[in-house]
Amino acid sequence: MKRTDIGGEVLKDDWVIIWDGREVGRIYFSDVPYKTANPWVWAIWVIPAETGRVKTLEEARETVRRVVLRVSGD
After folding, report:
1. Mean pLDDT over each residue of the chain, to the nearest integer
2. How far is CA 26 from the centre of its chain?
3. Where are the strands (E) in 1-74, listed by range?
4. Are 26 and 63 in contact (CB under 8 A)?
5. Pairwise CA distance, residues 45 & 71, whole Å
6. Could you report the per-residue pLDDT of 17-49, keeping only the tens digit for each?
7. Fewer CB atoms < 10 Å away: N or C end of the chain?
8. What's the CA gap between 71 and 62, in Å, rounded?
9. Residue 57 clears pLDDT 90, i.e. is over it
């Protein structure tokens, strides 16, 4: 993981996911209320793309790891 940098601005609680040297997704904390949604958002850009919301950063990291392993065939 590395911090998300958009236009030279490094964002707090926002990471790009690196897998095998490539950017494959993102995890970030969403402080915008959305009903009762969990605050941590994860997204995978590899095909098939997936996204979800979980309660903790650790849960987001583990979910991303499982999804990337599944779609990469590792």
Report:
1. 88
2. 3
3. 2-6, 9-19, 22-29, 40-44, 50-54
4. no
5. 11
6. 998 899 999 999 987 767 778 899 999 988 888
7. C
8. 14
9. yes
